[in-house]
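Q: My labmate handed me this sequence with no annotations at all. I'd like to see what the chain might look like in three dimensions before we decide whether it's worth expressing. Could you predict it?
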Amino acid sequence: MCSAQMLEGDEVWTAADARTEATPSWYGETGLVVIPTATIVDPQTIQAHFHRVDRDSSGWENTWGVNVGLTANIEGGVTRLDAIGETIFQAKINLDLKDWFGLEDAPDVAIGCRDIGDDVDRALYVVLSQDLLLIEDKPAILVAHLGFGDTSLPGSPLDGMFGGVDFVPLDFLRVQLEHDGENFNACARYWLSKWLTADVGWLDESFGWGVMAQTKF
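A: Here is what I predict for the chain of 217 residues:
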């Protein structure tokens, strides 16, 4: 048994943590590797993340940032792209259609913007997330995400249709697979504790890794 599972009190993570926790994408708001999802950071929660990608031709590419759950439906964040010396801002709103229309089986829907100031490549998007595999009324172990985006630079990630899946084979492990509109990417995230995760992945044919820490305020 992993030592993290033996912690007591609030430090113990459960299957629900790995299945429902919003995770930061490597370049901004919560999502998979590159694509956003309709899930947002819990209210009054701060997530800090760091990721490093090994670009063979240009060396290591570092990104780091923070996402904040401003309300139950609104998330904001900032990301630093060290490779090009730019800082971008992002925001996402979950439309909460289930409560508005009483549709319990409806997918989660969110709209958002990555790089609000268009300093690198602004992306406007809408994305749907839907539970696909439920076991004994527990949180889903398989969730699908499908979205459409429009970017300042045609032919870049999030320009057009994008999609992916979250799969939780173990209580402390989540596997993420996606197509960002241009490339196939993959990532495995491991819950070291309730507030700390580590991940390794494959982004546009390049190896990468990262960490995420979160806390309430």
